[in-house]
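Standup notes, structure subgroup. Blocker cleared on the uridine-diphosphate-N-acetylglucosamine input:
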Amino acid sequence: MDKLLIKGGRRLSGTLKVSGAKNSALPILAGALLTDKSVVIGNVPHLHDVTTMIELLGCLGANVVIDEKMRVEVSANDLRELRAPYELVKTMRASFLVMGPLLAKYGRADVSLPGGCAIGARPVDQHLKGFEALGAEINVVDGYVSATAEHGLKGAEFTFDLVTVTGTENVIMAACLADGITRIHNAACEPEVVDLVEFLNAMGARISGHGTPNVEITGVTALAGCVFDVMPDRVETGTYLIAAAATGGRVRLDGARPDTLQAVLDKLIESGAELSLGDDWIELDMGGKRPLAVDITTAPYPMFPTDMQAQYLAMNAIAKGTSRVTETIFENRFMHVQEINRLGANIELVGPSTAIVHGVDSLKAAPVMATDLRASFSLVVAALVAVGETLIDRIYHIDRGYETIEEKLLQLGADVQRVSG
Ligand code: UD1
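Run returned:
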């Protein structure tokens, strides 16, 4: 199992190109199942989760061709299987995103109940309620969700009980080919939902209101092919900004979308960073200063994203002052706290969803273990500032979501090495 060995103490400095967004590429790849025509998707990040989705499309019978620039061409005109197996869904919860497209196009889908990061219960009840509202019949048999709509899906009015990103994406995709108009309320407004809808509209779908809680979908009888580039990854962008800030360094990120990161940029300014922005780039300069402690509360977009909570908490661990970090999206998303404390941080968990972070002057290297995707990068942030060599175990979690992490860190001057075995 690969590990990362990081010698801390270097100030990050340099320029990086942001990768395509994982959380946008995954639903878009699933959305390619909605058409018989060929779809070409560009700016796809080279990540384990993307490979899993491509493997799943292949296993359903889609023809997938990937070129050297990670442009992925999907032709799903001859599917032989409408069943997404446990082996693929268990490693990645986003595999559940094939259900909406399969149900819309073929009136049937069997998808294993999902796995993915061990952060809370993460049910799919809202996805299923949405499909039922569109007229699907749902049964759960032997760990598989079996959905059928013999006479096709019908447009309907549906309100999510809570804001769910992939739930919104799944129900929008299902409604694309439904008969009539679907109105979804309390929809997720995340930029990745907007990116997916722009892709679907490029295929001829008729969707409006995306990026707001009220989305309207007028069903069409068939979708066409298209060429589409995935948006830049806002979580990767924010993560490298936080890493640079924690080390007192400076970084320029090219090919970014600053407009999708406002809540994080505001917090970085509060932490003492100087920021310059263009339409597609962000530069952060910490000027060698120690960050200031900043309170964080995660919430659905446009508020502070849960996917950057762990990294920010790691920076707060060495910040000047005490901060409160509150997680409102997932239970059990503080598994990194124990590991960061192993490096000498002083973080207290006060209840299941709040951490009080007493900033310490410095951290000291120790062996640590990654527990989930975003939490694992918080250990990288902590290791980059710790004195000595930190060995981070189980970095397969990082490889699920961060493209060429050691190359990018090396490019910023970090002392980092992947250790196999
Ligand atoms: C997506 C992102 C993930 C991010 C999360 C929240 C992808 C591939 N993943 O995950 O990186 O951390 O949004 O921004 O885009 N819930 C239910 N029932 C449901 C669905 C969700 O109770 O049917 C709950 C979840 O347990 C969680 C909350 O709703 O507490 C939000 O989850 P959701 O937005 O669905 O997360 P994902 O779409 O899985």
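Discussed briefly. Residues 116-120 have pLDDT under 50 and may be disordered.
Next: hand off to the docking folks.
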